[in-house]
Amino acid sequence: ITSAVVFDILPLKLHPFSQSTPTGLDCVGWKRRISSPVITDGALDKTALTDDVGSEEDLYEDFRSSNHRYGHPGGGGEQLAINELISDGSVVYAEALWDHVTMDDQELGFKAGDVIEVMDATNKEWWWGRILDSEGWFPASFVRLRVNQDEPMEDYPLKVEGGKEDDSSSGTRRFGMGQTTKDQMRTNVINEIISTERDYIKHLKDICEGYIKQCRKRADMFTEEQLKTIFGNIEDIYRCQKKFVKALEKKFNKDHPHLSEVGSCFLEYQTEFQIYSEYCNNHPNACMELSRLTKVNKYVYFFEACRLLQKMIDISLDGFLLTPVQKICKYPLQLAELLKYTNPQHRDFKDVEAALNAMKNVARLINERKRRLENIDKIAQWQSSIEDWEGEDVLVRSSELIYSGELTKISHPQAKSQQRMFFLFDHQLVCCKKDLLRRDILYYKSRINMDDMEILDVEDGKDKDFNISVKNAFKLHCRDTEEVHLFCAKKPEQKQRWLKAFENERRQVQLDQETGFSITEVQKKQAMLNASKQHHTGKPKAVTRPYYDFLMRQKHPTLPTTLPQQQVFMLAEPKRKPSNFWQNISRLTPFRK
């Protein structure tokens, strides 16, 4: 199936709690603004939302029948404009906000910052795109459209000796009143930063006044703990962003935007932006709590009534709550583009350069935490596949699989050797035994607390402690009990990988302590519960990502009926390539055998 296939536009299902993704909430280019008035205090009269479930449904129906419809930026005018540009032969580029890791050969994988050519945006949630020679589907909510669509891919200005720009570069072309193309490009980026920041403030205000304020009036429906779980510290973020946008406005040169000096604003607020870490860490809990509440119609209609009264666009609450996560990861992309069009002689150059590095560090920390949270589901599923498990769950102490592989373990007395599979997590090393007949089945045997161990490299030859000859060996020595574990790898390179993995494990533990990273008890219990349910229903023991699916809101597009049925099935429900247990678990490790 190629990108030439034209897909039917999915009809917007009239459902009170829309499952649409927040595509285009702060996308740039072809922006369609909502000019509807905003209710100043976002007030919802308690008499309008009584305790009766039916009354909230009636309220929703009243608004729906009154034609209070607000378009989805990702699926309305902007989406239509994108497809018109593509149809006219224009090349449309988007930049990745997130890493998109996929095991499906019909999807396009990429890393944050990659540039993707958008080839089909007919479906508002899944677009078809290309990177180099690879094509496939990707989630539209994971990208932002580039500000300067007419710019070639090799966009950085050429440098010549002496540090001056090459006169042959596009930067020498003139625009209007003595303004170069590069200045015009910088103007576009500055305008985008200011514009999207104003839009973002509007979204935050709508959440705080349209949802939180009304939820607090309904003590019969929400506890303070629930509200903290759902909305996290978004009110703190709103207060921070209001101050930030005021600082940006002061630095914004309305007459000559390219002369604006906004880099210092990002540097000034880089510490305050760290509050996003708490929000992003809590976001999976918010998704789970919302999912639980919206199984009850009372909450579905209440949330939809809040949205309609606040005159918010047609995106569900979970979509709005994703915008802060997207926003903090978008700043480095904006600053990188701004730096690209800022001459080294510009007064803002050094500040923009420093701001880019600062915001990259913030985004890197948040992305790493997001990835770690996704991993706990995989670890829980791995544990559920192990037979005869004993003791506490892996997630009680660990949240990252560092490395795994087969080793020979030599034990006292008589220096007995055993072939075992070992899984190195942060804080612990888990030992398992393969089934004699079915090698894809593992039995739990033991674990070692890595916090008490030191790693000893052992030279080839006779070992004094065990009185045997060894090759490619290393030891784990317990500092407290003097207990010693001897291990042998099959090849020297395997031994070196294990030694490197042990270093990485200690480094990971230290980094978690420094950054304060931790998995909440709620997240651990939910991950184990999900794994247990899948195990008992007899589903394949495969790696899935519930939180990742929350972000992606996976919906495959409708296909024309003229396509063969087999092709329709393959796209609607992508088939995974056959993979055994070891391939699944190896996806968790940074090493390849």
UniProtKB/TrEMBL annotation:
UniProt domain DH: residue ranges: 185-369
Pfam families: RhoGEF (PF00621), SH3_1 (PF00018), SOS1_NGEF_PH (PF22697)
Domain named SH3: residues: 89-148
Gene Ontology cellular component annotations, sorted alphabetically: cytoplasm
Main location: cytoplasm
Signal peptide: none
Every PH domain range: 400-507
Location of this chain's protein in the cell: Cytoplasm
Keyword Cytoplasm: yes
Gene Ontology BP annotations: intracellular signal transduction
Keyword Zinc: no
Bias type Basic and acidic residues, positions: 156-167
Keywords in alphabetical order: Cytoplasm, Guanine-nucleotide releasing factor, SH3 domain
Entry superkingdom: Eukaryota
Molecular function per GO: guanyl-nucleotide exchange factor activity
PROSITE patterns: DH_1 (PS00741), DH_2 (PS50010), PH_DOMAIN (PS50003), SH3 (PS50002)
UniProt-annotated stretches for the region Disordered: 156-178
Protein name: ARHG4 factor
Organism whose genome encodes this protein: Thinocorus orbignyianus
